[in-house]
Amino acid sequence: MAEENKLITERRKKLEEIKKKYKPYPNSFKKVDNTASLIDQYSDNDKESLEKKSVNVSISGRLLTIRNMGSSSFANLHDEYGDIQIYLQKKQIGDDSYELFKNLDLGDVVGIQGKLFKTKTGELTINTSFIQLLSKSLRPLPEKFHGIADIEIKYRQRYLDLMINPETKNLFKLRSNIISTIRNYFINDDYLEVETPMMHMIPGGATAKPFVTHHNSLDLDLYLRIAPELFLKRCIIGGYEKVFEINRSFRNEGLSVKHNPEFTMIEFYCAYEDYNYLMKFIERLFDRLLHQHEIDKVINYQNYQVNLKTPFTKIKFYDAIQKYVTGINSTKINDIDYLEKFCSSHEITLRDKSSLIDIHLDIFEKIVEKKLIDATFVTHYPTKISPLSRSFDDNPDLVERFELFIAGREIANGFSELNDPQEQSNRFKLQVESSTDDKMSYDEDFITALEYGMPPTAGAGIGIDRLIMLLTDSQSIRDVLLFPHMKPKK
Description:
By secondary structure, this protein is an alpha+beta fold.
């Protein structure tokens, strides 16, 4: 730390000296070129032909290496797209400009103009005729990241990670491109992109602990949304037949490799369709993503081989428990005494007064989920844990719902929507009665909206952060969020 403070002091002194002759923070610089376009266009030119073309360059970026050699110097200039070598001679840029350059440090942002040429070793280089300091780096750049301590820096100071590691920069470009592919897939299928409120009077659309905020002029507590579902359904009630929203949702729960307090998801709803349509639609989306981004249908994710070939595997909720949990079969799956002993011996902590369905869900979450490596739709969930889903006509205890699991993680959740207002009201009331949260309520205006009539509808949500983790082989959700939430250092 003392060494770093000393370097900062030295750089501040250099800045004060520079200010005596130059303006180190100009309001703009005319950047015409970038490193990628120059390399693409001219790297194959030989030395003589490049000299004949007399290519003028105006480019800016950050200095990442500097090699002083008396009256001439080489440096590497880094911009968003890559690196290119620059060459400076005192006799060409003048004594003052060369003295300026000699006082620059790694990390300084400069603008330069000059002509392209190739060195004796064939490296494409800019022969600098003009240099301008655009911004001084007062802090020394970090060394290459390595080890656990540096992972902490990568997350806390992402700008340094982006500055130093092209792999990180490319990952977030890929994230942006994947989201664009998803958006275009929906738009091309006639879905309308909409925006719904981020602050809700009553949290709804999922079961999770919300963040609470306060509206001063209304003197009213509001909740950051845990899901946009109920407002998107209002759009269907209003007459739109296909809607989607790529949104941020917020859940006031733990931090982990799978969870961040705010996260990105896409929710979409289609009138006159059911949950079977959703599964096929999601399969086609995966085919599009893999093709568009040249990703194999069998990928390696964190030491797992994962099969993404369509159609995906389908298995019913209770069948999955009996298939993947040793000791639970058709005679034991409804024996609550046996299941309680099973959970105790397998270190599965049950909630107080757990019902049979609660125990089934705990066993599924603790044992089954992590075994679902290849893309798998789990269907036919219990109605009790699916309050917004439509029940099967021939079995009211199960709903027309699926969850998509890949590499042991939930990626998507969808169902045929419950559109009977009386049944929805009854389920909401039952949910409130069984909750341990005294403040829990439900959105009565949504019931009012349903009473105007919602057509048969199918809706689903896909976790975009987890999807990108999968497609980029990223171990933690923090790897795919530009600025993940972190515990304060102090």
